[in-house]
Amino acid sequence: MEHVQLFLRGADLDSRTAAQLAGASCVVGVLTVLARMVSNRRAAKEKIQRARSRRDESLQRAEQAVLQYKESHPLAESALILTLSLSELTKKLQEGSLNPEDVFYSYMEKVQYPTWHCSLYCVSLVCSFLTLLFFSVFISQHKNYDSSCGLIIKLDQPEDKDSVIVEVLKRQGAIPFVKTNLPQGLLNYDCGNPIYGQTVNPCNLQKTPGGSSGGEGALIGGGGSLLGIGTDIGGSVRIPSAFCGICGFKATSGRLSSRGVRAALPGQKSVCSSSGPMARDVDSLALCMQALLCDHMFSLDPTIPPIPFNAQIYQSTSPLRIGYLENDGYTGSSPSMARGVREVKALLEQAGHTLVPYSPLKTSDVFPELVVKGILGDGTTTLLQNLEGGPLDPCLKAQVLPYYLPKWLKKTISFLLKPLAPRIASVCSAICGVGSVADQWKHQSAVEDYIHETIAEWRRCNIDVLMCPALGPAFNFLYCGKLSCASSPMILYNLLNFPAGVVPVSTVTAEDEEKLKHYKGNYQDYWDKVFKQAVSGGEGLPVAVQCVALPWQDELCLRFMKEVEQLVRQNRK
User: What residues does the Amidase domain cover (predicted)?
Assistant: First the structure.
């Protein structure tokens, strides 16, 4: 046994296999586990190779198709096409001044293998070889293609039908032309997995694009698509949009259909996931929402309330009472993001809006007790089961490895850390889950109470909408997994089920970087020190603000985002 133990210390094992080996009572047991491990790794390697081959073949087919089209259509105005917004492009297509095939192949050329894709690694598959508008898809079910969620165990399982969102957009003339990359298992705001590798940020190749809709953010931010559909359970649409300098919108959960959309944790209801569009400008987000909120979607999914898009609210110009904050009290904002809020506040006041200071309620308790316990209510069991069958991606390891610890050890670590690092201690305890069904009911009741308390606070402040910092700027690699807590400015609005979106408003300056050197954070703990490291070296990266409204006021949220976008653009002239 001694020789076997020495061998095991040198082996590259995942935590689950190591636990099985530790529990093996004899050499035969150890050898049995090792044999299973070797077999599983071989099977995983073969699955990964098949998936990569499908991607490479699809990209090569796209390259050939583009070359053939360019030879037969040498006058296609690709450079002009790529500068048009979605609204401009749609108008030209409808009036017939642009050929849909020219548009399609211009964008297909942008993402074709091997030049552009290899620098960003954002495309996981080319789906189709036309169009009112066209889009890239994140994890929505798409017929005949895998929706793997970056998980090896979900490879080689092509979908037999489209998701409702994909079906509705296709009916209106849209074309899903690529699928994009995401983090392993989705519950991470980086963008790497063992199947397709690490996606990088188009604004700075040494930075992450964010996640989980990171491939989508990189593709649109890099000019490879006009519109994308992502899902958001903790900022997964808004974080990559902020990191990559584009606009992203998380609708009220239940406003858009989730049928056929792969969920990270099916059945988890405490922290709401919702789909939403990502694009270069707010009008494109609104156009997408207007296209989706139609009778066809309401018919395909009768659980969605039949509320069409209210263009009158979106186009309104009446003055707003706007709550604002620079710091949520849990994760301290970086200097650049706080500056972004201050600058936009000044522009909004100059435009005649009323700005009201606002503070989120009880964030130090809400994040561990309601958010973490809600998402990981089963004590991380489902997530760890999803990760079986292959290696952990580097971007996920720091986040996930504590999940494998036995519950008694997590509780012990939490107890020991409490006087030294109370924030870390509370999260360490929260990842143990809620415990029993009765505790789950109490937890969901506490979430409902918090939602109503927050709405009451909005009423007390008499605010229409809220402006707050987005997470950012874009992180250095391998830091997202170390800082799950940093998603608090974004995930709070999933817990509340408030519609929220981000708008780019500035870029990181040398002065921001100088101020970052003196960053202390709210707790001056280990996580605050790591956050400072994560966002360092960000000069020139996008700075975004987040816009929030009350549930079902999606059009008002988009209208507010549009106001911010217009004021920032006018100020730059």
Answer: 143-558
